[in-house]
From TrEMBL:
Lineage: Bacteria, Pseudomonadati, Bacteroidota, Cytophagia, Cytophagales
Record domain GH3 middle: where: 300-365
InterPro entries xref list: GH3, GH3_C, GH3_M
Domain of life of the native organism: Bacteria
Protein name in the entry: GH3 auxin-responsive promoter family protein
Source organism (scientific name): Shiella aurantiaca
Residue ranges of every copy of the GH3 C-terminal domain listed in the record: 392-497
Length: 512
């Protein structure tokens, strides 16, 4: 199918893509909100919140103001306990027209029990459409045509979904991969049979044994698991780099966590540089993707079934545990400030309404609606006002790893009591030799440079920083122990509440 590569290199684009480029972010989002309200006006949720009257009474300039007066913000528990549980019982027209046939199981990295996120037909169409837009945006990158004629390896959850007689449930990656269009199946690896395997270890073994048969040009998946797979393949075939097996490998599409802490170890497995492309595909929808080379930011998808609100991530709107207040200040895309941190609320064509997705972002280009992910609302440390974000942690690890010439594949941090005050305890996963005291000191100093609040509190209430170095394998063994191996599962960057005792008990049992 050489024609695919030719089309991409010529930069052919969909009309929907051009629509987003022609209109302002505000106009696109106003239209999206209106369409979502119109579509859902006869659902139980729409009737309960007066969508018909809202649409009649409010003009386009006032629609959002009336919308947020009539519709409350929702956490997952609030959305599920009042509305989504009915979808699981087989009821229809609850928060979106029709029945929900699929649920994505998502525990994220902050909750112990699985969340059931509805995936409607409209949402699957939305994800497919945005995926095609992202593929077409690759025409802007310096990529040879033959890359797009090679295979695309997508390492995700099992496509074998559980069915209870009413709906299917599984990883979003498993749901969407099972719905790939026929024309894409020629390129897709590892293929339906291997992808349906529920055993993560067996799946990696099967991919490894078949790797040499495939010509892979693009790989997609969570950094930790892609790196583990590449290491496994390199060892199995006794070669030096993954390019000895896949010489045409050129693109890595990643998301879910910051790639920077993995970069050094990742690139040791390559013979030539890759084009790295970040995506923001959550269980609740395909939110953003990188559409320009040499930039860290991603382009928000503004006209494909998603409406966004932005909540300033501060003490006024969130408590010390990252819980949002009942009536936070919210803004549309035209009202945000660049380089300020916000939590995202989304309203979607899967029946999520003013739903706190749990991620924090910064808008780095308001006119182009470009964002970077900075962390999670519950993955930050502020025991005494240090306001340490995951973004700060990732950057410190990246800088220190480069300075000490080590590869840090995983890390996590806990805030703990220390005497009458507080301390941070770091657990750093690296298989390189490094002095723990030196590593602790370097990370501490970098954080002082990156975060003024942290610097102040290190001379006040944040009295100590502790650090343990662990083999990388320990982090993945813990995920396996928690039943979260592979697919979209990531290790939490901050350990709070029930997560910390579980982690400490695991380490003790492992003799660590």
């Amino acid at each position: 199918m050489a024609i695919l590569g030719t089309l991409l290199k010529q930069g052919i684009k969909l009309r929907e893509s051009l629509d987003q480029e022609r209109n302002s972010p505000l106009d696109l989002q106003r239209n999206e909100l209106k369409e979502l309200l119109k579509t859902a006006e006869d659902t139980e949720f729409g009737k309960a919140h007066g969508f018909k009257d809202l649409l009649k009474s409010a003009d386009k300039d006032k629609l959002y103001a009336v919308f947020k007066e009539q519709v409350p913000v929702h956490s997952y528990n609030e959305m599920y306990n009042k509305w989504w549980y009915k979808n699981r019982l087989g009821q229809k027209n609850i928060t979106w027209p029709g029945k929900v046939k699929y649920f994505a199981l998502s525990s994220g990295t902050s909750e112990s029990s699985s969340k059931y996120i509805p995936v409607t037909k409209d949402m699957m169409k939305s994800i497919q459409k945005t995926s095609i837009r992202q593929i077409l945006s690759l025409s802007k990158f310096d990529i040879p045509s033959h890359t797009f004629e090679s295979g695309i390896l997508m390492l995700g959850g099992s496509t074998h979904l559980n069915y209870n007689g009413t709906y299917f449930e599984g990883d979003l990656s498993g749901i969407t991969t099972g719905q790939i269009p026929f024309w894409f199946q020629h390129f897709y690896k590892p293929g339906k049979k291997i992808a349906s395997n529920r055993s993560w270890d067996e799946k990696l073994d099967q991919i490894t044994r078949n790797a040499k048969k495939w010509d892979i040009g693009i790989i997609a998946g969570v950094p930790a698991w892609i790196q583990i797979l590449m290491e496994k393949i390199i060892t199995y075939y006794g070669v030096k780099t993954i390019h000895d097996i896949w010489p045409n490998l050129k693109i890595y599409v990643h998301g879910g966590v910051s790639f920077e802490p993995y970069r050094k170890g990742f690139e040791q497995l390559l013979a030539k540089p890759l084009v790295y492309i970040e995506t923001y595909l959550a269980s609740e929808g395909f939110i953003a993707y990188q559409n320009k080379p040499e930039v860290r930011s991603m382009h928000l998808v503004l006209n494909n079934g998603l409406f966004y609100e932005f909540v300033p991530f501060n003490e006024e709107n969130f408590d010390a545990d990252g819980q949002m207040v009942s009536n936070p200040k919210t803004y549309m895309i035209d009202e945000v400030e660049e380089n300020k941190e916000y939590a995202i609320l989304i309203t979607t064509c899967a029946g999520a309404w003013r739903y706190l997705i749990g991620d924090t972002v910064k808008i780095v280009n308001k006119e182009e609606a470009e964002i970077v992910i900075t962390g999670r609302t519950k993955h930050f440390l502020s025991l005494c006002g240090e306001h340490l974000s995951v973004d700060n942690m990732n950057k410190a690890i990246e800088l220190v790893a480069k300075e000490l010439n080590i590869a840090v594949k995983e890390f996590t941090v806990a805030g703990i009591p220390h005497d009458t005050l507080f301390a941070h305890h770091w657990y750093v996963g690296t298989d390189d030799k490094v002095d723990s005291e030196l590593l602790m000191h370097k990370i501490d100093e970098k954080l002082k440079e990156l975060n003024d609040d942290y610097k102040v509190e290190r001379s006040a209430a944040l009295k100590e920083v502790f650090l343990d170095i662990l083999p990388t394998k320990v982090f993945y063994d813990y995920l396996r122990h928690q039943g979260k191996e592979g697919g979209q599962n990531k290790f939490p960057r901050v350990l709070k509440k029930d997560k910390l005792p579980s982690w400490l008990e695991f380490l003790e049992n492992q003799g660590k």
